Amino acid sequence: MPSDKLQLLQNAILSGNIPQLVLNTISFALDSRASDIHIEPLEHTIRVRYRVDGVLRQIVEYPTNIHPAVVSRIKIMSNLKIDEQRIPQDGRSSVTTRDGREMDLRVSTLPTVNGEKIVMRIQDKSRKIPNLEELGLEGNGKRFLMESIKAPNGIILNTGPTGSGKTTTLYSALTKLNTPDVNILTIEDPVEIQMDGLNQSQVHPDIDYTFAFGMRTALRQDPDIIMVGEIRDRETVDTAIEASLTGHLVFSTIHTNSAVETITRIDNMGVQPFLMASSFECIIAQRLVRKICEHCRVEDTPSPHLLEHIENMAKMIHPDEGVDPNLIANMKFYKGKGCEYCDGSGYKGRLGLYEVMKMNNQIRKAILKRENAIEIEKIAMKTGMVTLEQAGIIKALKGETSLDEVYRVARQTETTDEIDLPIKKSDESESKPHQQNKAFKIQMPNE
């Protein structure tokens, strides 16, 4: 991290210059590649932490006697009520740093026993939207998503926890579709990334401008493509299905653990299987993992038990994924030992793990029969889907991330079941016919 910016922040704390303290906190967060700033009152001090590459790091502390002034300063910037300290508040602010970088801040205050806590989510306007390859999408997942966004109509859902990059992935896909002959509407809460060529609207639930109401309004705006920020209820999913069945391509997000579990979640909302089968085009599950620092990368040795599990999972990667056989035959894993370049963490930057389930007739038949998630996942893997765990293993074998990171965000499958995968035709496979019909063992989730 740049020490000069940290020194400016520390000087502002020592001098009690509140405006400079707040501005330097934000400016230093930008230079540190932080996504969130946490200002937390403890019993005897105020702690400032940044979320960098998905992990919180403590930066500085300042005395409790200046905290009310810091809170007031941030509330004024965000048009929040200064005298209201009993309830949480949410606001937004636009900030320009001394070096001319513009950003939007989403500010949230929360009353705690030691005072008001503040979290600021940073949206750097100067940062461009990465393309799908830069995000980490590759192999079958990239091919499935590219085929899906070229479809004339249907629903493309992206699932994952908060802060896993869902919105960025959808915007990256929309970038490829953003041409003068297409009308793209987005209904968001809030509008996180402003993009030329898109008609972006922010919902206001307090005046009944909800996602569902916004979707119905969008259908009267002659759209070709609609992005709705999140599917939270039955009304929104019904409107999205109606839009897809009337010839529109719909993008949205939802909160589930995997691509397959999204089917179960929407089924539980009361949507009929025939509607899901006819409207869903593609379901993506994604997570973000930290990239190993290239300056301090060293080889890592997993435990024998974990290595055996990884070998079993690697065998189940679909042959069409195009993984180099040498990577699997000569497994090597890496980690970062920590250096000045990565601030001692061993990691620098992040990339995505993607599980992409493209709808096909076999999966549609399973949905119509209301098969459980385990059976649908078997079919999806047999027809090309790579799970989050397998995607992480591929990234780890390439030396892009560590196994610790993979299993921090992707669950290790537990029970065993058998599945036949197609064998990719090659000279080697034709010379060993006994391998053609081999049934590998795959570990499937219990849920």
List keywords for this structure.
7-stranded mixed β-sheet, 17 strands, 447 residues, single chain, globular, alpha/beta, 6-stranded antiparallel β-sheet
What does this structure look like?
With 447 residues, the chain is of the alpha/beta class. Helix 10 (273-279) runs antiparallel to helix 13 and helix 13 (361-368) runs antiparallel to helix 14 (373-382). The strands form four sheets. Strands 9-8-10-11-7-12-15 form a seven-stranded mixed β-sheet, sandwiched between helices. It has a six-stranded antiparallel β-sheet with strand order 3-2-1-6-5-4, covered by helices on one side. The model is unreliable at 425-447 (pLDDT under 50). The chain is 36% helix and 27% strand.
Short recap of the structure:
Helix content is 36%, strand content 27%.
Q: Spans with pLDDT under 50 lasting ≥5 residues? A: 425-447
Number of DSSP helices? 17
Strand residue percentage: 25-35%
Residues in helix, %: 25-40%
